[in-house]
Batch of 2 targets.
Target 1
Amino acid sequence: MTALDPTTAADPLSPGGVDPVLDPASARPQRVWRQLHRNPKTLVGLLVLVPTVLVAILAPWLTPYPYDQVYVGEVLGAPDADHLLGTDLNGRDLLSRLIMGTRVVVGIPLVVGLLTLLIGVPVGLLAGYLRGPFDAVAMRVVDIFLSFPWLLVALGLASVLGAGLSTVVVTLVVVYWPQVARVTRNSVIAVTEAEYVKAAAAIGESRTSIVLRYVLRNAYFPVLVLLSSMMAFSILNEAGISFLGFGIQSPDTSWGLELAAGSTYLSAAPHLVVFPGIAIVVVVLGMNLFADGLGDLLSRQGRNR
Amino acid sequence: MTETDVTLRVADLRVDLASGAQPVEGVSFDVRQGEMLGIVGESGSGKSMTLRAMSGLLPHGVRATVTGSVTVAGTELATASGRPPRHPRVGDRAAFGYVFQEPLAALNPGFTIRRHLLEALRAHGRLGDRSDRHDRLVAALADVRLPEPERVLRSHPHELSGGMRQRVVIALALIGRPHVLLADEPTTALDVTVAAEVLDLVQTLQREHSLTSVLVSHDLSLVAQRCDRVLVMYGGEIVESGAAADLMTSPQHPYTQRLLEATVDPFDPELRRTPDPEVESRAPLMTAGGVTVTYPARRRRQDPVVAVDGVDVAVRAGEVVAVVGESGSGKSSMAKALAGMQPVDDGDVRLGGRTVTTDRRDRTWLTGEVQMVFQDPYSALNPRMPVGTAIQRSLAIHQPALDAASRREEARRLLDDVGLPRSFEDRYPVELSGGQRQRVVVARALAAQPRVLLADEPTSALDVSVQAQLLALLRDLVDRRDLGMLLITHDFAAVRAIADRVVVMSRGRIVEAAPIDDLITTPTDPYTRRLLDAVPSARRTHTTQEST
C-alpha cells in the first residue's frame, strides 16, 4: 500500500507537485528572486521605485544647490555644466528642486494610501460582511462620494483649507476612499460565500475572529491592487492639483508645480516642462508596473487548488 | 482482430505540456467496431487528457505538443500542427461525438434545445431540407428516449433535469453520426438512478446504431459493468488492459489490484458487520424527532418548499448512522438542521438534554458537541492559514485552558491521529492533496472534542483509493473515541464500508430505516430497491433476485 500512503502520495491535482513559490520550506531570498524572475514587471517597477524612495530620503544631501536659492541672472537658464537640468523662472536650480520634489512624490502616495485604507477598508468590510441596512446606507454614501469630480473637491477644499499640501491630501482621500470601500465590500462578499468561512462558523469561531482571520485575510488582494494603482494616480493628481494652483505653493516644490510653472515658457525654456514631465511619467509607469506585477502575484497565491 | 474491424486506433499518443509535464506518455489501444471500451484511472492518471488529445479538444490555453497517430475507420487524422484537428471528419461523418461530465456546462443557457440541435446540424453540414427539418429534430430527441420531444425542443437547458440534459448532449453528439462516441465521466454529476438510466441508454444506442464508444470514468465497478474491455491508466500510461470480467476477478498489475481493493462492492457478503450489543444498548446521544424544514416559496402564491418532512433519526455513541438519498431528498437540509445551521420549523433536535437551536449564544456549546466534515476538502480550509494553525484555532475555542505551547503539541497529536506527519503543521492547504486536506478537516473537527461527527458526503470529492482510506479513518475514530457519527451520502459503497444503520430519505421523508445488512439483502421499500439496483456491482445479480 506504500504508493497510496496519504503522506507520500503526490497530489494528483497538481502534477507539478509543490509550488516552489508557496513552499515555506524553500529559502526566502531565493523565493523572492524566483518570483521576480518570473514576473519582470515587478522587477522593473522596483528598479524605478527603490531609487526614487532613496532619493526622497537623502534629498537634502543630494541637491547640488539649495532648492530655494535664487541665482539672479540665471533665470530660465538652459541645462549646462553648472545646472544639469537648467534653472527656472526665478533662477533656481531645477535639478535640486526636482530632487526635493521627490519627497512629495513618495510622501503623497504613502499618506493618501494609508488614510484611504483606514477609512475605506473598515466601511467595505462591515458592509460586505453584515449586508443589510448598514450595507445599503454605506454604499449610497459611497455612491455620493464617487460622484464628486476631484477638481471640484480640490476647489472647494482649497477655499476652506487654503492651497497647500493638506488640500492635496484631503482631496485625494475624499476621492479615493469610496473606491476602496466598494472594492473591499465586493471582495468580502465573494469570500464570505466560501465554504471555509462557513466551516469557521462550524468550528465555533466568533464573528470577529471570522472577519479578521478568515474573511479579511482572503479578501484583501483586490484592495491591495487597487491601492497600488491609486498610489500611482495620486502622483498624477497631485501634479494636476498643484498645476491648477490649489496644491503646493512656491517656494516649496513638487513635480506638478514645476510642470505648471514651466508650461508658460514652453517655447523659451522647454527643459522646465520636459524634465518634470519625464520624471512623473517614469515614476508613475514604475508604480503601475509594480502594481500590475503585484496583482499577478497575488492572484496566483490566492487560489485554493 | 482484422484491420477492418478496428474503428479507432491510437498509437503511441504522447502529450508534452509546455511546463515540461507529460500527462500522457505513449498510449496505444484499438477499439473494434461496435465495442465499448472503458478507461479507468484516478485524477491525474491522464485518462481525460488522452481522450482530449486524440480528439483535438485540449483545453483552451494549454500549450502542448501531441505526438502519435490516431486512426479512425482506416483514416489517419492529420497531426501536422502538433495536435489533431478540432472536430475531425472521416468521410461524411464526424470522427468523434462527445459527452462530457457536466451537461449544464456543455449547453448554452441562452439557447433553446432546438437552437442547439440546429447549430449542430449546421456544423455537420446536415441542415438539409427545411420541410422535414423539424421532424428530424424531433426524431433526434426521440432517439435518446426523451419524452415529449416537442416540449423539450422549446425548452432552455435550465428547464430540464440533469438526466434530460445529458440525453440532449448525447443527441447532439449523435447528430454528426460519429464513428466513435467519447464519454468522459458522463454520469458523475447525476444521481445514481439517473446515471444508470443514461448508461442504459448509451448501451441501447450502441446496439441500435452499432456505435463504437469509449467511456472514461474513475469508477471501476461502473466501467466493468458496462464495458467489454477496460484499460487501466496510471501516471499517463496504460498499466493494464483486458476483458472487464478478467480484470475484476484477476487483476494483474499491482495498481489495478489496489484499485479493486479500494472499491467497495456494497453487495459483497464478506462486508457483513457484526453489531456490538453493548453499543446497541446505549441510549441515543443525539435525537431528531419529527424534524421539519421548510423554505419560503420563491414566488408569491406558491407553497413553501418542504425539504424535510417529519424525520426521526437517532445516533448512539460508537455507531455510524447513514442518511442516504438522492439530490432533493432533503438529506442536506437535515444535516444543516442537526448542526444548528438551519432553523427547524417543527419537531426538535435534542443533544445531551438540550435542544439544538440556531441561536448564536449556543454556538460554542453546540460546536463543542457536533462537528462537521465537509464535502469539498478543497474549499473547507482557509487557503491563507497553515493547517497546524487551523487545528489550533479550534483548540483555542474549545479548550481555552491550553496555553500556546500545549495547543501546538495537541495539534500535532491530532495530526498523528488522522495519519498525517507532524511536519505538515506549517503547510498551507494548497500544498496538500484532497485526501490529506480532508484529514486536516477531520483533525480540526476532533480538536473541538465533539461527541457527534456530522459528515456530509465526505468522500465524494476524493479518488476511490483515498475514499477507502478516509472511510477507514472515520470508522476507526468512531470506535476509538466512542463518537456518534451521521454520514450523509448518496454513495452506497461508503455506507457499506462504515455504517451500522441506514436511513433512506426520499422527498423529505424517511422511506426506510434498517441495519445495513438487512437493507442490502432485503430492502422492503421500492425506492430503496431502485437505489440499490442502480448501484454498479459485479455481485448484485443474485441479491436483487432475492429481494425483488
Target 2
Amino acid sequence: MSDIFLIFIGAAFVNNFVLVRFLGLCPFMGVSTQYKSALGMSFATAFVLTMSSIASYLVNEYLLVPLELEYLKTLSFILVIAVTVQVTEMILHKSSPLLYQVLGLFLPLITTNCAVLGVALLNVQKQNSLIESAFFGFGAAFGFGMVLVLFSAIRERLEMANVPESFRGLPIALMTAGIMSLAFMGFSGMTQA
Amino acid sequence: MSAVATQWAMALAGMVGLATVFGLLILWVSKRFKVEGNPIVEQINAILPQTQCGQCNFPGCKPYAEAIAKGEAPINQCPPGGQEGIKKLAELLDVEVLELNPENGTEEEDQVVEIVEADCIGCTKCIQVCPVDAIVGAAKLMHTVILDECTGCDLCIPACPVDCIIKIPAPMPAQLQRNPKPALLQTIEEARSW
C-alpha cells in the first residue's frame, strides 16, 4: 500500500512530469491562459492518462512481451493512446453531454500530449505492475493538472500586472514556469525515482 | 523460415492484429454510443439569438431551428436575430438571403424590459410567462428584472395587469453578455476600460 502511495507522490510531486521531467510542455503553455480551461484540461488528462496507462500495460504485457515485440512499444502505445482518447470522447459524448462540453475541446489535444506517452514508456521501463501503472498514471495526471491549474491562476494575475513591455505574454510565462520548476526542485530526493 | 523472416512476420502480425482489434473496438463504440440528433439543428440553434420569444410562431428557438432544418420554415422569421442572423443562416444553409418577414415583427435595437417597481403589485404573472426566468419576485412582493438574463422578448409586457413593465435600451451588463468579454485583456488600459 505504501509503495503505491509513494509511486503516486513520486509521480505527482517529486518527479512532476511538467516541472521536473519537462514533459507535456505544450498543453502546459497552451491551455494555461485561462483558469477554467486549465481545469477542464486537467480533468480530461487525468481521465485519459489513467486509462491509457492501464491499456498500454495490458498491451505490453499480453501482446508485445509474448511476441517479443518490445521494440515496437512506442508505436503501439501511440496507437493505444489515440484509441483511448477516441473511445473516451465517444462515450462521453453519449453518456454525459455536459462533461463533453467542458472537456470536448481538450480531449483530442491529449493525443499529442507527450506526458501521456512518457507515462506509458516509463511504466515499462520501471516494470510496474498493473496497479502500480494505474497509480503512476494517475499520479502523473494529478501532478500535471495541479501544476496546470496553479500556473493558469498565476497567468491570469500576470495579465493584470504591470509587466515590462518586452516581457509581456509568453516570455513572462516561461520565466514563471522556470521559477515554479525551481520551487519543485525542493521535493527532489524525497522518494526513489 | 529464417529467424529474421519469422520476426518480421511476428511484428507484422502483432501490429496488424492490434490495429484491427482497436479498429473494431472503435467501430463497436461508435455504434453503441451513437449520438442521436441532427448536428445541423444544433448549428442553426447556435445562430438563433435564444430569446425564446416565439415571434417566429414556434414555441422557442430550438423548435424553430428544427423546423428550418426540416425545410418547413423559411429563415426570415426571427426578428431578434435581425438581418444579420438571416445572413448567417443563409450562409450556413447555402440558401438565398431573405428580407425579414414583417408578419413576425420588425428588427429593433437591443432592448430589455424593466419593471417600474413603484407600480408593481406583485401578481407574479410576468414571472410565469418569462421564458428565460429573468424575473425574480414573490406573490404580493415587488418583482424585478435581472437585466443580464433578459433577452428583450417582451412576452411579459402583455401579461402585466397594471402595465408596469417598460422597454429600455439594453444597459451595459446586458451588452457585455451579448459581446462577451475577450478571454484575455492584453493591456492594462484595456482591462481598465472594462
